[in-house]
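Hey team,

Filing this mostly as a record. A colleague (T.K.) asked me to run one chain through the structure pipeline before their review meeting, and I want the input and output archived in the tracker in case anyone asks later how it was produced. No errors, nothing strange. Just documentation.

Input sequence:
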Amino acid sequence: MDISRYKGKVPFVTTDQMREVDRAMIEDFHIELIQMMENAGRNLAQLARVRFLDKSPVNKKVLVLAGSGGNGGGALACARHLNNWGAEVNVFLSRPSDTLTPATFHQLETLHRMKVPISLPGAIPQLEGTDLIVDGIIGYSLSGPPQGPAAELIDWANQQGFPILALDVPSGIEATTGQVFDLAIRATATMTLALPKTGLQSPKAQTFVGELYLADIGVPSRLYAERQWSFQVGPIFAESDILRIDSASLNKTN
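Output structure:
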């Protein structure tokens, strides 16, 4: 799979705008959350394979950190694909399994049936030689600093020196403003979804985001056109499901 470098102007969206995209996907277009998770998870696994796992996950060790919401569900879907492709995957949850949203719990149940090792909140990984850590702890819905097991996993991940691939927004960064809390994932790369979040343009946040990629989750272009926003979104994924966002685009506004 080729990853194209996109040098055009990319619209950036706030948390409220992304919530509206998610709502419209489900209510107006009948594209369910689990479909979006599948698209996010497969693209995340593809990026992991190409960028971090030498194009072959076989026998590579991947640690997936997952929260209770949609971000965690996408990370769990990624875990399933990487496991299918031969990686040795271990999953660590930041929230109890009975607090997961239905679609995320569905992803977890599939991993249980596949016998993928899953550790509950409070467990700190004791693994050596990890090839990649996947951050799916907290997505764009972050409100306030990470706490409890989520904070512990973030702190642990940052201390390991292993490459970290974050989903949508590195955990611990506020998606709209780019505020970086005391505990925030310092990612090697971040794969954001649908459109980049405005907080990723913040100079301070950029040091935690690392390389920025943009992935298609199947948002119809008509959805954007029907919103009362000041930008239009063309067929930006015409060449690839995953785009590398040029650094110059980070300094362009909507």
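Quick notes for T.K.: The CA atoms of residues 61 and 131 lie 5 Å apart. The beta strands are 4-6, 61-66, 88-93, 118-119, 132-136, 164-167, 189-193, 211-215, 242-245.
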